[in-house]
Amino acid sequence: MKRKSLSRQIYAYFLIVIVLSLLSVGAVSYVQSSRALDDQVKQYMEQMVDSANYQTDSYLQAYELLSNAFSTNSDVRAFMEIKPDDAYEYYEYSDKIKKFAFASMESIVTLYKQLNMIYVTGQHGRSVVYENQNLFFNFDPVLVQEKFEKLMRLTPVDGKIALLNMSIRTADEGSVVTMARKVRGPSYKDENRGVLAFEIKLDELAKTWDRVSLGKDGFFFILDNAGNYIYPRSMSGRKSNDELASQVLTSDNQTFLSKYNEEERMFVSRKSGYYDWNLVASMPVKELRRPANTIRTTTIIVGLITLAAALWLAFRFGRSIVRPIRNLKDSMRETEKGNWQYIEDAGRTDEMGGLIHSYNLMVTRLSDMIERVYEAELEQQKNALELGETKLEGQRAEFQALQLQINPHFLYNTLETINCYAIVQDSNEITEMVEAMAFMLRYSVQTNLEEITVANELNHVRNYMIILQHRTEREFEIDVAIPPSLLLEKMVRLTLQPLIENIFQHAFPDGVEERHSIRIDARKGDGLFQVFIEDNGTGMMPERLAELRRKLQENRLAEPEEASSGVKRGGGIGLMNVHRRIQMVFGEAYGLSVDSEWGRGTCVTMTMPETVRPRLRNS
User: Fold this and answer.
1) Crossing angle of helices 290-336 and 351-403, rounded to 10°
2) Neighbours of 59 (CB within 10 A)
3) Torsion sign, CA atoms 325, 331, 335, 336
4) pLDDT tens digit sequence for 316-368
5) Parallel, antiparallel or unpaired: strands 127-131 and 136-137
6) Residue 605: per-residue pLDDT
7) Which residue ranges run through the membrane (predicted)?
């Protein structure tokens, strides 16, 4: 494996840190600035298009108001009913309509330059035309009739305004846009008899749109809802509903990118809220991102200069660090050989001087420290081993002392002999007592079983009750409410019977009466198995209950002098022993808990872990 010097490693680390820092800062700065510039340009274009759209709607609304005035004018409505060959009526209404148009234009000065002409034409083929420059003339009736049929076909029947890319004069085609609506006769019930139209000059209206500054290669155009290009004239020759028009109509007022003349461009479209016009602004993407490209180039140049300067400083800094370390390395090699070599610190007061000073101290104390460390380690391991063995032996002795407080083997053999004599003498009471006692002794000497079932413990309690009934010559039944499904749950041996014995000794001090009862119940859940032993005896005083709970919490056995207190009786297994036995088998988290009320009884709860049984497969 090729070895690398520390100076090269430091230089490589500095290179990685510097390059990563420059790349991350440069990339993030470029991406964020590009994104910010794109958003700013997009917002700028959208604001300009929105402004142009608003101005256009304002102008068109003014023309609509003027159109409303014309369509409701009585002379205009009456003109629709004149006879085609009545020259007098035609001249009379034509003069009135022209005067009304002149008066209306004088009242709205802002529309003067934009209006090309106003004309009213009816089904009878006669027309009244008012030009903006106050020149009055009549069109050829045949020509007007051709245009009239087109106007009647394209304008809505409900009298609403329609914007049409047409003119009744061939010379004005492409330079004006027509705002037209149908006009009824004098009666509102009559059908539409004619058309009222305003021709608006696109060049004058375009002065509002030309305020949209889109740079050198940007342009602005208007598209109607049918896909026809209305403005400028250079685009009016394009086919309707071409690819660009389709994208605009389907963009739903959203900004999109598309290729136009082999160049990727950004298009900002806004649909007029007043008429079916789409105002669209476009700029090349490369022009939009020119500031971002400038930022990128500047970032790269500055980054390269910074990288070169940083690498030179890293090289000088690395050499200043590595030189004393090399001297220390050579001295340590001599130390490995057993040559305890000192290093001259040359009066250094920095970290390297401290390191050299520490090395010199290490050399002087190394042999003694190694010997002491080994001795301390051996002593510590020896003490830990002895402590573990002592603790294990103490737990084993305590467990055996709790479990084998008496040695019943010889008693069991003696009881078998007594049982034989009782059978010979035909004494059923003696036989029953001896058998119960024998079963209890046999159960107590099974030292190889620490975890048995609830059913085993209940059988042990039954044998105890047989002996107790013969001793007291009084029958007493214990209410066992444990569900059959819990009889095979695991518990500690010789824990249930001592609690029953404790009840008879302390809960019923004046003897067992008819009202007295003992109930044994059990339940499991949340990973716990609990057995409840409840009586309705005398109960405990509050101070005695508090003292008992404290000792259960301290996990210590009762003292011999406490025999008269009811917690432990000489030669028996009391509550504290049962509590400690459960903890020694299952752990400190389990054991006994006591609830009692003076004069009403006591409930002792035995808490153990829930038994997890394997599932049986269905055959």
Assistant:
1) 80
2) 18
3) positive
4) 777 676 767 777 777 777 666 666 666 776 666 666 677 777 777 777 777 66
5) antiparallel
6) 96
7) 12-31, 295-315
Neighbours of 442 (CB within 10 A): 14
Beta-strand pair 479-480/518-525 = parallel
Distance CA 178, CA 150 (A): 12
Q: What span, in angstroms and rounded, lies between the C-alpha atoms of 225 and 288?
A: 28
pTM above 0.70, yes or no: no
* Contacts for 104-111: CB closer than 8 Å, 24+ residues apart: 104/66, 104/69, 104/70, 105/132, 108/62, 108/66, 110/62, 111/59, 111/62, 111/63, 111/66
The residue among 259 and 533 whose pLDDT is bigger is 533
Can you give the pLDDT at residue 2? 47
Token output for 170 = 């061939």
Residue type for position 359: Y
Question: What's the pLDDT at 206?
Answer: 73
- Closest to 430 (Cα-Cα) out of 471, 397, 460: 471
Whether residue 395 has pLDDT greater than 80: no
Which residues is 267 bridged to in the sheet? 256, 282
Write down the residue that tokens 């003349």 correspond to: 261
Mind giving me the DSSP string for 254-268? --EEEESSSSEEEEE
Those residues with Cβ within 8 angstroms of residue 458's Cβ, 6 or more apart along the chain or in another chain: 480, 482, 487, 496, 520
Stated length of the chain: 619
How many angstroms separate the CA atoms of 75 and 73, rounded?
6
Helices 202-209/6-71 angle, 10° precision: 150
